[in-house]
Each structure stands twice: as C-alpha cells, then as structure tokens.
Amino acid sequence: MNTKVTRGIRVSVKTSFEGTFFKNYKMHFAFGYTITIENQSTNPVQLTSRHWDIYDALNEMEVLDGEGVIGKKPVIRPGESHTYSSGCLLASPIGAMKGFYNMVHLSSSEKFRVYVPTFRLNAPFALN
Predict the structure, then answer these.
(1) Residues 9, 114: contact at Cβ < 8 Å?
(2) Contact between residue 11 and residue 36 where contact means Cβ atoms under 8 Å apart
(3) What pTM, to 2 d.p., does this model score?
(4) In-domain check, residue 45
C-alpha cells in the first residue's frame, strides 16, 4: 500500500488487476484502486476536485480533472476518513498513476492540495 501525508491529510492507495478485454478491436487492461483519505489534522476539510496523471507503458500520459470523487465531495472531520474505489483502463499491462485532490479547510476557507503518492498498475503476468 502506498501512503503520503500532506498537511495532516493521509492518502493511502491499494491497487488490483481486474482483467483484460477487447474494446474497439484493441486489448485493454483493467485496474482497480481503493483510496482512503484520513484527516489527521485538527480542522474539518472538504475534497472539492481531483487531478490525475495516468501513465501507460505504450502511450503518452493522460490527464484527467474532475469534480469530487465518484460523484461526491466528501467532508472529512478530524479523526475520520473517506474510502472509495475506482479504476482505469490501460492499453498495456504496466502503468502508473499520481495526482492530487483540491481541498478546503472548512473553518478558514483556505484552499490547498493533498498529493496522492505515485502508484503502479501492474498485471501479475507482466512481471517476472
């Protein structure tokens, strides 16, 4: 599990390989990831948006930006956490992701970024 702490917000990532399938006559590799965002600070925070850099061993980097995570903008109080699962498709069995969440301290309205550690996406059969 990869973990990174930014300004008292701990982000942990666990990945899984979900399988392969054909789409538009091309092989795709499906990966899942579960992220836990834990508020270890003394201020309640809200996640407002996300940014992802997705790397594929065969393609260039793909950048994704969006509101919240899986349709939610969770408020995370001190000592609490928010966990969600999502996934991505790659054209190769090896890749990686990294990114950040835009957050706001609810007590001061201060905006800040919380960084997600780089995590690898590897199909088990692709590694020796």
Answers:
(1) yes
(2) yes
(3) 0.92
(4) yes
